Amino acid sequence: MTSSQPAPRPPRRRAPLRLFARGSFPESSRVGEILRAETTGGMLLIAGALVAIVWANTPWSDAYTALRDWTVGPAALHLDLSLGAWAADGLLAIFFFVAGLELKREFVAGDLRDVRRAALPVVAAVAGMTVPALVFVAVNLGAGGGLKGWAIPTATDIAFAVAILAVISTHLPSGLRTFLLTLAVVDDLLAITIIAVFYTSELHLLYLALAVVPIAVFGFLVQRRIHRGWLLMPLAFVAWTLVHASGVHATVAGVALAFTVPVLRRDGQDGAGLAEHLEHVVRPVSAGIAVPVFAFFAAGVTVGGLHGLAQALRDPIALGIVAGLVVGKTVGIAGSTWALATFTRADLDDELSWTDVIGMSMLAGIGFTVSLLIGELAYGTGSGRDDHVKVGVLIGSLVATVCAAAVLRTRNRAYRRICEMEEVDADADGIPDVFQRDGREEPGPA
Q1: Residue 388's closest CA among 152, 112, 106?
Q2: SS3 437
Q3: Which end of the chain is more exposed for a tag (fewer CB within 10 A), N or C?
Q4: pLDDT tens string 391-419
Q5: pLDDT by residue (tens digit) across 125-183?
Q6: 309 burial level (CB within 10 Å; 0-12, 13-18, 19+)
Q7: CA 176, CA 243: separation in Å to the nearest integer?
């Protein structure tokens, strides 16, 4: 006797994991908008660094040093800092606030809330920091105190990287753009964690405990969607001041404040939440002012001609930085991507090749902003070794730029074809056809 019950439906198979898939149209559009802003900031960053390098190698270099070391601020609050310190501790807190907002949004409402899609940039970021650190340590074993700078080649500078892409006229497909941005943001969070844990020389717990109060009030206000500047900015400054007084690097306050900001709208509808709103407001300040000004004060190194450059590059610290940025980043990111593809049986997106992965890994070797910051924390601003750090970061980033440009430009024709395809909207509904399936917006891989 046959059963009248319907046969059970076979379980739905999950779509195979595609590495560097383009994702959803809203996310792709948002990433493109962010990278356009970072391109402008990157151009200003490069300009600020070039002005500093040229000035520091002229007969008027003493004027540059005097400006960088000029002390301003109230001594009673322990804020009598040099302009260089204000740039490193204060302006970069704005940079890390934006990075914190971006990271939280990616994992709460972005494409990376899917654990499988988040795996690649997170694994690549961790490997892309671990391998350069190991390379630096290998070069500096027995170098006498040089190991303090192990974290210098671990950073990726997204603004510098996308500015280079603009200069070489390379338009990356949306999947690669999203990966590059997410990799850099995760990289920034790991970098600020390293700074807080490994580069805090003394800790004043009372000030650190007091910093929780303005951060909590800031969080209470933003959770209630109160975001008036005259309320939030004083609270942010008080939190920054207390974190600075605690001995923890003050940029940590920027990330802590960012993590209190809600991502989703209170009404539960789709659209920009408060985190995205604040990011739109603060990112131009970060990209257009904070990072370029820091680059101006941090990049000025007196090289001393070819002899001075050769002497600096004989220092294992500089060599370790160059090797870490150029070799370590490429091996770490490309190698971890290959391992992930091998062990999960995932494939690259159909339109991409391993040449793209290698080129992107080389591009991540541009470690300018945070690398310079860690170098100052490791060896001291203005010290001889700090100058060698700057030479190493500049040369390493330059070599990574040349290598990445050489590799990525070989794929320019393919990138142009993919970008043109991603703009085709035959049905004129405002959503490019490649992001749709059966007339609906395609949300990206399951």
Answers
A1: 152
A2: strand
A3: N
A4: 999 999 999 999 998 998 888 888 888 77
A5: 899 999 999 999 999 887 666 788 899 999 888 778 878 777 766 677 777 877 888 88
A6: middle
A7: 36
